[in-house]
Structures are given as structure tokens and as C-alpha cells.
Amino acid sequence: RAQIPVEVQCQEAQLVVTVHRDLFGTGRLVSAAELSLGPAACKHSRMDPSQKTVTFSAGLHECGSTVQVTPDSLIYRTLLSYDPSPGSNPAIVRSDPAVIPIECHYPRRDNVSSGSIRPTWSPFNSALASQEKLLFSLRLMNEDWSSERDLSAFRLGDVLNIQAEVGAHSHVPLRLFVDSCVATLGPGAGTEPHYAIIDFNGCLVDGRSDATSSAFVTPRPRQDVLRFQIDAFRFAGDPRSLIYITCHLKVTPAEQSPDAQNKACSFSKARNTWAPVEGTRDICSCCELGNCGRRPA
User: Fold this and answer.
1) What is the pairing mode between strands 273-276 and 215-216?
2) Alpha-carbon Rg of the chain, whole angstroms?
3) Could you tell me if residue 238 is inside a domain?
4) Where a domain ends, among 37, 72, 107?
5) Which of 266, 175, 271 is nearest to 218 (CA)?
6) What mean pLDDT is predicted for residues 69-97?
7) Out of 47-51, 128-132, 254-258, 288-292, which region has the weakest mean confidence (pLDDT)?
């Protein structure tokens, strides 16, 4: 049978790309050194001389891969690059560079991640007429909020538009809250160093810092959507440019009035006070105290 030039295995935590060195079916074998994976140009992990194959193994978030979150799937994308080395005569070109797109599709589970943003799902504790799975998403959006942002790279001075959303087929209307968001240099909220963006059950504490305009966007487009903006930042004294943001999302019935444990509060520097997206102003008073009562388990 015909040799498949590129085979991809989408495994649970990594993708495995096997490349036949007769990449173009011409009989000319490409060199392993001419192949790389992803924007980070990761090198191969092993070679099989007998099969004339080169294999790349990489974690789903490694080598500069990107991830798109859809209502049904997580789609990880990366690139296999072929960059031919110059021959002995640099004036002669015998092959062109090539880029082969690679995708791995995974069905949505209870926990998903989106690039450097990693939402974790909170169980819906209020009684529903029927048990169902709530689909939470947390996405970087473009400037006018019309679609997901294609690029995840930011410069200092940029503003990050972040949209949290929950999807449910229940007839019970839901209101979404972002309980907390923590920025770290590694996956997970427990790593060091860390920086709290949202804390105390919905206080956008980053907006309390000097020279920031971070805030929740009001009004909401819908009760099951919550938007907020944060000014781009980096950790001082650390050369790493990738920042992970871990957020805890939760919902209440839309008819339930916001309170100190279920709120979305921003700090207004012009008025020197905290203000909620909805509800009475007093539910935000605990943000200044740094203690809003019981934390979620």
C-alpha cells in the first residue's frame, strides 16, 4: 500500500506525529534535522532507520500549540515544518519549505483549558428540575467582543478582553459569576509566584492596583455571560513570557439576588469605591476589607 507521509496520534495528554522521510513521495529522503514541530520548532524524539520515519512526541500545550474551545470540542492545533537545508551550491534550490497543519479534536469534559487560560468547573449546587451538565467556557476575545481572539500574544499596555460563559439546556435561567482568577507562571493556581486578579468571591482586585483600568464590563450581554478586562502584565524579574490564568466559575439562578458570595465587583478610581455589575453597592464593601465570608470548597 502507499506510504502515508504523516501520521498523527491524538493521545490523552500528548500528540505523536510520525513522518516518513519520503515526505513528498519522490524517493528523496528528507533529513530529520530539516523537520520541526510547532512555532517553538521542537525537534524529533526518535528515529527509525529501518522504517525511514521520524517521530515527534509533544504535550498538548508544548511546542507553541494553540487550543480552541467550542461547545463540543477542544481543538489543539500545531504545525509540522519542513525547512530544507541549503545544498553545497547555495545558488541552486532543489526543494521548497513546507508547512503541514495538524489538529487534534477532543470531546469536551468537565475540565478544559484554553491556551494560557485554564477555567475549572464549579458544581451547580442549586436544585434544578433535572440533572444536567453545565458547559463553562472562558475565552480571550477580540477588541469588539465579536469573536475569539486569534492570537494569544500580548504586549505591555494591551488590554485583555476575557469572556466567561455557561451553556445549559435547562429552562432555569442562570447567572454566571467569576469567583476567582489567579495568574501564575505554571499550570494550576497553587504554583509560585502567583498574582490574584479576581478574589474574595468576585472582587476584581487587579483594578485596585495603581495605574490599572481592569474592571468587569457592564451591563452584561446576557445573564449567563460575564465579561472583564485586565491590563496586560508580566512577573518582574522572570524571563518567562507565558502566563497561566486559572479561574473558578460558578452560577446561581438568575432570579437570585447577588450577595457577598455571589457578585461581580470592580473598583472605580474616579469614585474611589467598589461597584457591582448588578445588585446593591453594599455587597462590594467586603472587597476593601479583603474578607467576603465563606470561600467555596
Assistant:
1) unpaired
2) 24
3) yes
4) 107
5) 266
6) 73
7) 128-132
Classify strands 244-253 and 117-121 as parallel, antiparallel or unpaired. parallel
Q: Which three cell numbers stand for residue 212?
A: 490599572
Per the prediction, the chain carries an average pLDDT of 82
**Is residue 80 located within the same domain as residue 219?**
no
Cell of 208: 485596585
The mean pLDDT of 199-214, rounded to a whole number, is 92
- Residues 184, 164: contact at Cβ < 8 Å? no
133 and 280 inside one domain: yes
- Assigned C-alpha cell, 84: 530544507
Domain housing 152? 117-289
Sole residue written with cell 509533544: 58
Half-sphere exposure of 24 (CA within 13 A, CB side): 13
User: How many domains are contained in the chain?
Assistant: 2
What average pLDDT does range 164-188 have in this prediction? 84
Q: How crowded is residue 182: how many other Cβ atoms within 10 Å of its Cβ? A: 20
**Pick from 39, 74, 107: which residue ends a domain?**
107
Q: Model-level pTM? A: 0.57
- Residue 112 domain-assigned (yes or no): no
82-115 core/surface letters (b: 16 or more CB in 10 A; e: else): beeeeeeeeeeeebeeeebebebeeebeeebbbb
